[in-house]
Amino acid sequence: MTKARIEGLTSWESDWNGLRVLVLGMGVTGFSVVDTLMELHCEVVVATPTIDETHRQILEVLGAELLLADLNSAVPDRAIEFDPELVIVSPGFAPHHPIVKWVESTNAQLWGDIELAWRVRDKFGSPAEWICVTGTNGKTTTTELAASILRASGFKAVATGNVGFPILDAIRDPYKFEVLVVELSSFQLHYLGEMHPWSSVCLNIADDHLDWHSGVENYRKAKGKIYENTKVACIYNRDDLVTRTLVENANVEEGCRAIGFGLGIPGPSDFGIVEGIACDRAFLEDRANQALELFHIEELAGTGLDSPHLLADCLAASALARSFGAEIPALAEAILSFRPSAHRMEVVESVDGISWIDDSKATNPHAASASLSGFESVVWIVGGLFKGAPTADLVAKHASRLKAAIVIGVERAEIIASLTRHAPGVPVVELEVAQTGDVMQSAVAAAAEIAKPGDVVLLAPAAASMDQFVDYADRGRQFAQAVKERIGGSGNANQSSTGTTPETTTKSHRK
Known about the structure:
- By secondary structure, this protein is of the alpha/beta class.
- It has helices spanning 2-7, 28-39, 53-62, 77-82, 98-104, 113-119, 139-152, 167-171, 186-190, 210-213, 216-224, 241-248, 308-323, 328-337, 365-372, 392-398, 413-422, 439-450, 472-487; strands at residues 20-24, 43-48, 65-68, 86-89, 109-111, 129-134, 157-161, 179-183, 199-202, 233-237, 257-261, 270-274, 277-280, 292-296, 346-351, 354-358, 378-382, 402-407, 427-432, 456-459, 505-510.
- 34% of the residues lie in helices and 20% in strands.
- β1 (20-24), α2 (28-39) and β2 (43-48) form a beta-alpha-beta unit.
- Mean pLDDT is 89; it is low at 489-506.
């Protein structure tokens, strides 16, 4: 009976009253889930190891029950006693997590926040269309770009999902959006059931989160779910065969088109570049013989979008927006006025011929490779939690660009081995800092001793940040602060503002 009831919950107007729901995790996403469920008159228990005081107080006002427990060791007795009919899990809980395994052994259904959002998207009548974005890298930039283009074209659009604005908040907003541009992580896609997006894109695929997914095939399978049941356009990367294969294997709605994007000359039904001009050969009548000019590449200088990987994001976002009817003048205006989000190729300082660049959002080797590709002489700050992703190909590809590597983070054996084998002439500085707060000061100090005019000091860690920082944003902020303190307004990046080097233990060696 429970399964049949859950499967029948396909609308805001369905009978959710009294449904017993266990919510796992209480971050921004978890709170939006609880808020929604309480509005639907469900009976809710929230299980989480920690919660901030504001959320604790709001849960009490809402009437949800809070269960503080270590979910890694054993299933709490209260969760078992509650006997949930539905469990909604935050993206941080991997499929092999003990409490997820427990849920699968019960009669309860298991959803993520995206599954709930899809089912209740009709709160204000006719639901907004969804344009969905995933990929190993570039998701946020592409999502925000597509939403900006659509807004410039007069549509009521918003960037949501994994991008920071919870999708359940967007759905319940009385503004009544016409289109949601939804960034989806592989974690969210793993827990997703059925969805019918207007258009969808997988920007690229590289090994990432392999520990969470227990292997590359599961990771790719999760990413491929983005294309299932797409109605109008499946956008794929012409330079990434895996994304094309995912489209070919997807079950889409009749009439859905496959549209490629890439930095080369576009074929019919593609987006690409011809003689320095971004072009659309997909959304015009005579696409076999003509192309529509979108914008000139040289116009992107100074926008922060002129590196190759961000230019590819612009083309993907253009394809998504054009699939929904975005007009070209508005598209060009939106792209040329857009600025990438924080910690994505941000120039912190450029002094004495040395540029200091924060790409802390490069949390995997694929993203770091894109960052390194834009420069010829790099003092590279790298390291953190590699999550099972190999780094050998990354180092081998960019060894000629590296002037030096400064290694931070806890999981350093992988990157040190790759540098030793594939960049034997590159000096490596290993930082062993007793206090986490000193990491970036030490890294910047080491970089300042090495960098010369014409060099770029690049924070592109190729790894997650939670070993030494709160998150990638915290890592980027600490880098920027350390750079500004080091330069100290004196215009000399090679002279500490205090005249001293932060205390640190280093292992410096030229291989």
